[in-house]
Inverse folding.
């Protein structure tokens, strides 16, 4: 311990003796360690930390699958059969997303909610911290006017009043009794969920196997494996397929651990970013190691004197490692500050799509990770210089009288570090180049609509206040008439599922003159409901036929508009306009009156699927999105439209007010963030690598000033010296680039799932990025080479 304290005091003096080298090293390492800690904070909370439920490893998501290769939600009777026939689960719970207008303030507020089965909270193992959850009998219609609040809503809207239990609140104009308040942080199934109400199953859904709308969770019994449960559920699904061939043909189940389901969309990106930040830290370590090697050369005489008076090699290594670890720990402490700033910025950018974002913080595990990483980093960049200096020949070093010449072995190590930096930075640059190319391709995708000057907002009409179709249609007619008359509005329409943001419902349909279809083989399409002016407001092009008109209302001939994808897949050999279809073999006929251009309804990365649009006036629904095309800035009309809605219904809030361009931008926000972060890491890596090669060449020029002077005295021209120095630097660069290209070719295949429109071996990226690195390295070599050409032979020889 005494030796350690002595080494520590001496290390402090050494670091203070050369403040410039110390400061550069600390900043370099703090950036690398801070970036690593910030990304690890996200990985720790999202991927490593167990879900905040009881025995989360036993929680399973159950999907229904259908041909070809799709999966989705479950029907009510299927859930009933699963509950009765399985022996693998202790319980199955169901839920559906919802939203409610919360009243009691100056203006109604729309809050995200979930309707859940009575055993939902029990299955998750998270009881309310105030009051109680739901009872099974409270799922019955008329008895389900009760609500459980989230802790955040309880604090924000009800001043954390513990007496809220048993009191009534207004949701969509109806009185609900508060039975409980959930613990802080509980927001399942989404981070925006603010309240929960019992799941009410309409009477017409109890035996309807064709309507799949329930999300299902299950908890494994103790001792039952996922494979065993999967096999049993597939057996049950096969049995149901035999019993109900018309509804269940081609349907089975898919079981996924809930922990995997939650992070499925972000796991590849987070692992990629963790690998990228590790590369940046390795490059930073190589840079600092190179700096310490240069400093170690100047300390050869000091080490020789210490060895001459009895210090062993182990003592010298311990002393030098103490210096490097102390340097790294100081960098780690500063890195925590960098991590805090970086994490704050990251959460602002990623909060909308990053799961478990509310759990991300610089907790004890992250601090321990940072300090441990600092120690490992200090050993990593300090070991090589320590081993080099500890091998110093005592007699040779003392005989040189402090001459700081550099040994070939030390030069080879510095060169190897530069090669490694170039290789690692090239891998990061290629990865960033691929994501930039991918994002550019994504932005060039034609969504099938014109988003400029389009404002959107959501409206959910309460079932109890608008129970009849005529009431829904009446509200919509008054709304569109009012909004269309506002100054600056060019067109206004409504749709029940907003493109890009929401996926439509899937359903079978039966074309006239085709079939009969085998069970499960009927044509499949997404279907939506829209008003006549919706297509003009959204800028969707008509290919054939006509749009909806005022005459397409209840009581008139049922009509529909289809997209090109449906026409090409099911009606390629004939004119679709005038063709008829129905959704049920015994249902009414719908006449196709128009064909529109394909719209990428499910996002820019998804190809258009067959789609049917019905007139809103013939099939009204309570949930809708208002779409308004304006002559000027669309956001300027937000308050005016909001007031127009409140004038029709004073208790009706609007929410999710966004321009259509924002909707599209948000749909690719995760790709944008991945690209930006990797581009930043790659830029930092490039800067460090270029700094590394510049410092090595500058060091070599300084160490070989006498040799350069002799060459110039013997007749070497400046161009010869320039060629010599640049050639040495570019030889190192070329070596690193060869290794880097091979590494990028192998590693970028792992990020194929993050790319769109480009392959992991995109030729343009693999040519352009190395060329950029080559030119940058050439400039880094040119500066010290240019300085070498200005060496005065007389002064150089006289100095030596």
């Amino acid at each position: 311990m005494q030796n350690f304290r002595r080494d520590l005091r001496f290390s402090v003096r050494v670091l203070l003796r050369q403040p410039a080298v110390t400061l550069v090293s600390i900043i370099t390492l703090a950036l690398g360690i801070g970036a690593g800690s910030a990304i690890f904070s996200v990985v720790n909370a999202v991927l490593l930390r167990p879900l905040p439920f009881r025995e989360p490893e036993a929680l399973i998501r159950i999907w229904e699958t259908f041909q070809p290769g799709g999966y989705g939600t479950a029907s009510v009777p299927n859930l009933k059969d699963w509950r009765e026939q399985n022996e693998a689960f202790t319980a199955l719970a169901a839920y559906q997303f919802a939203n409610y207008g919360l009243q009691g303030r100056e203006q109604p507020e729309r809050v995200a909610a979930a309707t859940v089965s009575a055993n939902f909270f029990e299955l998750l193992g998270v009881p309310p911290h105030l009051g109680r959850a739901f009872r099974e009998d409270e799922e019955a219609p008329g008895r389900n006017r009760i609500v459980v609040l989230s802790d955040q809503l309880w604090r924000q809207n009800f001043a954390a009043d513990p007496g809220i239990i048993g009191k009534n609140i207004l949701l969509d104009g109806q009185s609900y009794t508060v039975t409980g308040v959930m613990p802080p942080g509980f927001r399942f199934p989404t981070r925006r969920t603010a309240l929960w109400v019992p799941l009410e199953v309409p009477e017409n859904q109890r035996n309807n196997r064709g309507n799949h709308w329930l999300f299902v969770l299950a908890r494994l019994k103790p001792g039952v494996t996922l494979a065993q449960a999967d096999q049993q559920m597939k057996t049950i699904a096969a049995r149901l397929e035999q019993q109900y061939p018309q509804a269940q043909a081609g349907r089975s189940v898919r079981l996924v651990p809930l922990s995997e389901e939650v992070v499925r969309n972000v796991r590849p990106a987070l692992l990629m970013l963790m690998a990228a930040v590790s590369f940046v830290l390795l490059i930073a370590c190589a840079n600092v190691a190179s700096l310490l090697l240069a400093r170690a050369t100047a300390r050869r005489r000091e080490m020789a004197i210490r060895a001459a008076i009895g210090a062993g090699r182990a003592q010298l290594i311990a002393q030098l490692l103490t210096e490097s670890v102390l340097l790294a720990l100081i960098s780690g402490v500063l890195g925590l500050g960098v991590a805090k700033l970086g994490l704050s910025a990251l959460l602002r950018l990623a909060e909308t799509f990053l799961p478990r974002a509310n759990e991300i913080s610089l907790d004890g595990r992250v601090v321990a990770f940072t300090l441990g990483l600092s120690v490992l980093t200090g050993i990593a960049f300090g070991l090589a210089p320590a081993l080099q200096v500890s091998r110093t020949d005592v007699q040779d070093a003392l005989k040189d009288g402090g001459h700081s010449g550099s040994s070939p072995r030390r030069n080879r190590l510095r060169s190897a570090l530069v090669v490694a930096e170039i290789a690692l930075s090239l891998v990061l640059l290629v990865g960033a180049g691929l994501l930039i190319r991918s994002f550019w391709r994504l932005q060039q995708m034609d969504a099938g609509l014109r988003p400029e000057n389009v404002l959107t907002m959501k409206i959910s009409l309460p079932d109890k206040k608008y129970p009849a179709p005529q009431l829904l249609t009446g509200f919509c007619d008054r709304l569109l008439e009012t909004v269309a008359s506002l100054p600056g509005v060019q067109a206004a329409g409504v749709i029940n599922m907003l493109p890009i943001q929401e996926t439509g419902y899937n359903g079978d349909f039966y074309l006239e003159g085709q079939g009969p279809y085998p069970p499960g083989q009927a044509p499949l399409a997404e279907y939506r409901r829209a008003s006549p002016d919706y297509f003009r407001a959204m800028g969707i092009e008509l290919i054939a036929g006509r749009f909806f008109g005022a005459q397409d209302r209840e009581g008139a001939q049922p009509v529909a508009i289809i997209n090109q994808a449906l026409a090409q897949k099911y009606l390629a050999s004939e004119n679709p306009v005038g063709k008829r279809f129905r959704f049920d073999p015994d249902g009414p006929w719908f006449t196709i009156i128009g064909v529109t251009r394909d719209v990428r309804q499910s996002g820019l990365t998804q190809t258009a699927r067959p789609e049917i649009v019905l007139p809103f006036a013939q099939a009204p629904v309570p949930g809708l999105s208002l779409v308004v095309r304006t002559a000027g800035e669309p956001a300027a009309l937000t308050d005016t439209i909001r007031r127009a809605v409140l004038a029709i219904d004073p208790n009706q809030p609007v929410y999710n007010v966004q321009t259509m361009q924002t909707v599209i931008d948000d749909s690719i926000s995760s790709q944008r963030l991945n690209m930006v972060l990797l581009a930043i890491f790659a830029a930092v890596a490039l800067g460090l690598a270029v700094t590394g090669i510049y410092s090595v060449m500058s060091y070599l020029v300084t160490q070989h000033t006498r040799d350069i002077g002799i060459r110039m005295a013997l007749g070497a021209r400046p161009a010869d010296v320039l060629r010599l120095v640049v050639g040495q630097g570019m030889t190192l660069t070329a070596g690193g680039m060869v290794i880097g290209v091979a590494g990028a070719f192998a590693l970028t295949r792992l990020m194929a799932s993050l790319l769109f429109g480009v392959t992991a071996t995109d030729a343009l990226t693999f040519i352009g990025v190395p060329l950029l690195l080559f030119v940058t390295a050439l400039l880094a070599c040119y500066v010290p080479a240019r300085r070498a050409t200005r060496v005065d032979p007389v002064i150089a020889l006289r100095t030596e």
Summary: Residues 313-350 form the longest helix (38 residues).
